[in-house]
Amino acid sequence: xxxxxxxxxxxxxxxxxxxxxxxxxxxxxxxxxxxxxxxxxxxxxxxxxxxxxxxxxxxxxxxxxxxxxxxxxxxxxxxxxxxxxxxxxxxxxxxxxxxxxxxxxxxxxxxxxxxxxxxxxxxxxxxxxxxxxxxxxxxxxxxxxxxxxxxxxxxxxxxxxxxxxxxxxxxxxxxxxxxxxxxxxxxxxxxxxxxxxx
Length: 198
Hints:
The chain has 198 residues and is mostly helical. The chain folds into two domains: 1-37; 40-169, no CATH class. It has helices at 2-31, 68-82, 87-94, 109-197. Helix 3 (87-94) crosses helix 4 (109-197). It is rod-shaped. The protein starts with a helix and ends with a helix. Belongs to the protein kinase superfamily. STE Ser/Thr protein kinase family. MAP kinase kinase kinase subfamily.
C-alpha cells in the first residue's frame, strides 16, 4: 500500500511539472507577439543546431524557409552576423531541402561557425554538381558527334561503293558503245559496197 501511494505521488508530481512547463511555454509565446519561440522536437529532421545541447535536441524551424523570400531575409540577417559572402545564401537556397544547412543558434559562436562551414560546403557541393552537369552535357555532345561521324562514315562508304559500281557500269557501257559503233561502221561499209556494185 505504501509503495502504491508513493508511485501515485510521483506520477502526480510529474503531471504537475509537465502542466507548469506547458503553461510557461504558452505564456512565453503570448507575451512576445513579435518573436516566435520554437520548441524542441527531437523527432524532427529539420531545426536549429546547437552544440551546447548535450542531448542533441533540435527545435523545429517551422515556416522559416517556407518561401525563398523568407529564406533570403533570414539569411541576410545571418550574413549581418557572420559576414559571409552573398554567394553562400544562393548556394543555400538552391540546395535540396534535405541537404540545406540547419539554421544555427544565434547565441552560439560554435553553431554559427558550423553553419558557415556547412554553407561553404554547400557552395562547393553545388560547384562540383555544376561541373558534373557540364561534363555530362559535354559527354552527350561528344557521343552525338561520334554517332554523326559514324553515320557520315557509313554514308561515305556507301557512296564509295556506289561510285565504284557506277564506274564499272560506265566502263561496260563504253565498251558496248564502241562495239556497237564498230558494227555500225561495218554495216555502212557493206551497204556502200552493195550500192557500188549495183
